[in-house]
Amino acid sequence: MPLAGTWKTYHNPRYNFEFPYPSSWTAEPPPDNQDGQAFRDPKNPQAEIRGWAGHQVKPITTKQAQQQTAPVPSSKANFTTAQGLSGALNVNIGPEISSMTLALQQGDIRYHWQARSPSQQFDDYYRFFYYIAQQYRVPPPSQQP
Question: Of 4, 34, 52, 61, which one has the greatest count of Cβ atoms within 10 A?
């Protein structure tokens, strides 16, 4: 999958995050809550990129606070975006579908991005997916919803 070509930028109206995608890829219908968007390669519909975000629910009790998912700890952070944000980038190689998943935390909002393709083609998409993950941008804390 070449990195050259024409790109567009998806901007999420609810959480203000953005990421590039190839202009030839098609958008899937967005979810009703407008928390993200998915795009597919029209030449290979099993290849997909998607980004979404959500507020982290605040716990009501101390016990819930202990069980709550914490921000991505710096010890788990293994990736830095071009914007300079640290997060966790994971690659999962499956028997049929393989994926690359990015998780970022900014304030009380958790941002996600995922790319998937058939496992036998994942090598072809890897650099392309990695590039898009690097370009994922979130608003500064002062501009978060």
Answer: 52
